[in-house]
Amino acid sequence: MASLFVLAFLVLAAVVGPWISGQQANAGEGEPFVPPGSGHWFGTDIHGRDLLARILAGTRISLLVGVVGAGVAVAIGVAWGMVAGYAGGKIDGAMMRFVDILYALPNIIFVMLAITMLEEHVLRWLGAHAAWLATGVRALMLFACLGAVSWLNMARVVRGQVLVLKESEFVVASRALGAGPVHILRRHVLPNILGIVIVYAALTVPAVILYESFLSFLGLGIRPPDASLGTLIEDGARQLNPLRVRWWLLLGPAGVLAVALLAFQWLGDGLRDAFEGRTE
Question: Which fold, 2-18+48-279?
Answer without folding.
Answer: MetI-like fold (1.10.3720)
